[in-house]
Specification:
alpha+beta, five-stranded antiparallel β-sheet, two-stranded antiparallel sheet, 17% helix
């Protein structure tokens, strides 16, 4: 997530308290839905510094960037761990979205 953002001109910042644990709330900015995620990081992307991307997820506790969409590049990234199944497979849809993007480009 951070490397993709940096490759698109973004800055990152050190967080005072990085989100750690299996119960970190993340808000989907497109749908307004909240997810419980697993996280372990101390830096965040400064979303308004990214060229060609838009913020897609934010941490509900501190407002830090947790996800970006890059429509022109047909790419997206998240900073949390969707495979960790912290909730009832809360973020598993991200894998379906990625597979769908690959199938569309066949």
């Amino acid at each position: 997530h951070q490397l993709l953002a940096l490759a698109n001109g973004a800055n990152t910042e050190k967080l005072k308290y990085g989100p750690r644990g299996a119960n970190q709330p993340v808000k989907d900015l497109l749908t307004g839905r909240d997810y419980i995620t697993s996280q372990n990081h101390g830096y965040a992307v400064v979303s308004d510094t990214v060229r060609g991307g838009r913020e897609s997820y934010v941490n509900a506790n501190d407002g830090s960037c947790e996800g970006m969409d890059y429509p022109q590049a047909r790419a997206f990234s998240v900073q949390f761990h969707p495979e960790a199944c912290s909730g009832p497979r809360d973020a598993g849809f991200l894998f379906d979205h990625f597979i769908s993007m690959m199938e569309d480009d066949r």
